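ARCHIVE CARD
CATEGORY: sequence design from structure
SOURCE FIELD: tokenized fold
FIELD CONTENT:
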């Protein structure tokens, strides 16, 4: 419908971006429901989650810089071997960047913390 609107290119862009984000959120909720019901499988591997998350973060740096962002990766531990699904982790990482792009330009720290065998990914913002 946004394509059919006359004029206001900025408004059309905003509608497309917001509807894309809403669709992504709905798909995430559907995926969560599938995981809970056992209809979506988890393909776990045992590996160093810190190394994998660092790799995923580094792969975003050049794109983030084009958006006026700087991303840094901080890990509480230099390595942490655990079971995780690389595909699901990639999707989580893919969701962090669109959220950051909607924030003002600044420095974004993606921090990995572990506690009791669980891993928490936190995004902290430092705006200049």
């Amino acid at each position: 419908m946004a394509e059919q609107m006359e004029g206001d290119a900025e408004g059309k862009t905003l509608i497309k971006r917001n509807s894309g984000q809403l669709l992504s959120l709905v798909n995430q909720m559907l995926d969560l429901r599938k995981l809970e019901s056992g209809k979506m499988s988890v393909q776990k591997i045992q590996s160093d989650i810190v190394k994998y998350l660092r790799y995923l973060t580094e792969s975003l740096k050049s794109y983030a810089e084009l958006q006026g962002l700087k991303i840094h990766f901080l890990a509480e531990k230099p390595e942490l071997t655990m079971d995780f699904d690389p595909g699901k982790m990639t999707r989580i990482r893919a969701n962090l960047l669109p959220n950051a792009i909607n924030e003002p330009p600044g420095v974004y720290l993606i921090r990995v913390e572990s506690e009791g065998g669980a891993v928490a990914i936190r995004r902290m913002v430092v705006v200049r």
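CARD ANNOTATION: The first strand starts at residue 45 and ends at 48. Residues 1-41 form one domain.
SHELF: design records, drawer C
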